[in-house]
Write the structure tokens for this entry.
Amino acid sequence: MQLPPSDLPPKIPSKPIKLFDQIRHLIRKQNKAYKTEQTYLYWIRRFILFHNKKHPKDMGELEIETFLAHLTVNQQASVSTQKTALNALVFLYKQFLGVELIDLNYRHSAIPKNIPVVFSHREAEHIISFIKEPNKLKAHLMYGAGLRVSECCRLRVKDIDFEMNTIVIRKSKGNKDRTTLLPNITINRLQQQIEFVKMLYEQDRMNGYGEVYLPNALARKYPNAASELAWQYVFPAQHLSIDPRTNIRRRHHVMERTVQRSVKDALRKSGINKKAGCHTFRHSFATRLLEGGYDIRTIQQLLGHTDVKTTEIYTHVTKQGGLGVRSPVDTL
């Protein structure tokens, strides 16, 4: 029996009583992404466990400061990790409990965010050569279009626009939509993949299935969409699985861990000794565009970054060096 998908929001009561169900309810009411929900709950749970399962309403600024200091001193957490934990706790107190945090005083992490690891073009293609289809196609989309592995796995048939040479990424990080380019190298294989999806879809319909998951709002607005070809996943799972909230048997998309394993295996076979994975292809996409002279704002839009400062980190890893400076010894 195929395990239920792990990236679907669990069902919660319409009038939740348990603390974490109540927090989930507020997050969903604010229409935040499911990954945000998972991240917030992870840090809130760690905060509560750190203070011996004390209820958040019985704690305050002192306990928050102690926990954040613990992350820095004892866990050697990076600046971004500590900031993520803080964001979760600020949400918990200010938005969920309605408690204003006046003046938090804690030790900030001194461990900076790492500069992203990137592949050269030769390295990226060498690694991809060790990946078998259809994961090879996914790797080319991550490298050629700057997709996150989650975005790649969740692509639906209607998201691929062959006429306009674009890919639409829906409800990604920050719950935003964006468009990115469709690499020429993927077009024929994507068309073949969609033909395979059509065949699988018809087979599922003959067997009494053919539905896919839709978020609640879309499912209510378009009640028949879940059974339409346009909403089918481009990279469907091999087996049907049970939706844990509705007990409906559906065909979900391929799991991220399947793609991640194939990339890790290819990296090992390639002999390229870099601490890398699926996300390195996205970093490499941005770096190639910078090396090609594309405007930083254009790259920001293609990557879906809210703040251009996030995109600017790639200026430190271009092939020309940290700031595009040529070494004086290379002119001798």
In short: The two ends are 66 Å apart (CA to CA). The chain has two domains: 1-112, 114-320.
